[in-house]
Design goal:
There is one protein chain. Strands 6, 9, 10, 12, 13 and 14 form a 6-stranded mixed beta sheet that branches. The chain folds into 3 domains: 55 residues; 83 residues, Immunoglobulin-like; 170 residues, no CATH class. A hairpin with a 2-residue loop joins β15 and β16. The chain contains 6 helices and 16 strands. The longest helix is centred in the middle third of the chain and has 13 residues. The chain starts with 16 loop residues before the first strand and ends in an 8-residue tail after the last helix. It is elongated and about 110 Å long. It is α+β, with helices and mostly antiparallel strands. The chain is 18% helix and 25% strand.
Length: 350
């Protein structure tokens, strides 16, 4: 004679005798209980992970199944939130948080100033900063039917910016803005106004950057009467600037009576440009070697005194791992930092 044994396939499985046991997963939650009802209802009074065990029996025997149940605190709790400390006027950023609690949750972002509050709802949600620069006090509120949780206010600095591709969130925004205020940087486009911060610094633009940083934003070199280099005729707007560097003994070109104005500037070349522009043609950097300034700038390279001079002036500490990366091309953004430090044009706090 075959006997049929009960099999539990779900917590609601029918059998002759049910035993539902709820135990805490951790001793921190002091809640347990049992029920022999066929379809019991369990009410949890504490949050945490619970172990629910169902045993179904008949005269042939018993089987059991166990399931883990995560019980959430119904009250909302904010686990993390992203409120930007610095943003540009009119710039769109994403606001996002992580919160727990009984759903549905309402996420409300509030930005306060002397003007009426700016309120944005949702997570994640896009927020466009106001066009009026200033400091805004911002906080997040997460609510449900059980209550409300709120973050402490934080200051969001909304700042205007000149170049469309250099918002305040860009890593050297303050340096580029400050140099522009001093009349130093040249633009790379005007519809909208662009700086091209990640583009290589060219030898041609370098002439303008150097002389404006040295002499001030109102400086203009003498006009070009006679071209010094074959590849920079007087019709080139950069000719007066490049000719002035030659007159000051900063450069002799790239060879073959050329200046190579569109060639990128490398970090070793930059060292010579900076020191000679700042100190003049009579600059005589320390040529004591060893020790070499960096592992990749040995005493055998002609650039080592100039790189060593930059280190002594506090302009550079290298590119990491005791190296200088002399052959690496300098970007326009990086050059804004080098120029600011070399010529004392450091930006104020944002």
């Amino acid at each position: 004679m075959l006997r049929s044994y009960p099999r539990v396939q779900s917590l609601a499985r029918r059998a002759l005798l049910f035993s539902l046991v709820v135990l805490p997963f951790s001793s921190a939650w002091a809640q347990s209980g049992t029920s022999t009802a066929e379809n019991p209802t369990a009410t949890f009074s504490t949050p945490g992970t619970k172990v629910v065990t169902l045993q179904a029996c008949n005269d042939a025997g018993c089987t059991t199944t166990t399931q883990m149940v995560t019980v959430l605190d119904p009250l909302p709790k904010i686990l993390s939130s992203s409120i930007p400390p610095l943003v540009g006027t009119g710039q769109t950023v994403t606001l996002q948080d992580s919160a727990s609690g009984r759903p549905p949750l309402t996420h409300t972002w509030i930005f306060s100033s002397l003007l009426p509050d700016i309120v944005v709802t949702g997570s994640p949600v896009s927020w466009t900063a106001p066009l009026l620069p200033g400091d805004y006090q911002a906080h997040l509120e997460v609510s449900n039917v059980d209550g409300l949780a709120s973050t402490s206010p934080v200051t969001v600095k909304v700042r205007s910016y000149t170049f469309a591709d250099v918002p305040p969130t860009y890593w050297v925004w303050s340096f580029i803005e400050n140099l522009y205020a001093h009349g130093v940087p040249t633009t790379c486009g005007d519809s909208p106004l662009l700086f091209c911060p990640d583009a290589p610094m060219t030898r041609g633009d370098m002439a303008v950057f150097l002389l404006r940083a040295k002499e001030g934003g109102s400086y203009a070199p003498p006009p070009c009467d006679t071209a010094v280099f074959d590849d920079v005729p007087c019709s080139d707007p950069l000719a007066p600037w490049i000719n002035e560097l030659v007159r000051r003994g900063v450069t002799a070109g790239c060879g073959g009576n050329n200046y190579c104005p569109t060639n990128p500037v490398t970090r070793d070349q930059m060292a010579v440009f900076l020191v000679l522009t700042a100190q003049g043609a009579s600059a005589n950097p320390d040529r004591t070697c060893p020790p070499a300034p960096f592992g990749d700038v040995p005493c055998t390279t002609p650039f080592y005194p100039w790189v060593k001079a930059l280190v002594g002036l506090g302009v550079t500490a290298g590119c990491g791992n005791s190296d200088y990366c002399p052959g690496t091309v300098v970007s326009r953004a990086q050059m804004s930092v080098f120029l600011s430090v070399m010529f004392g044009l450091l930006p104020p706090a944002p």
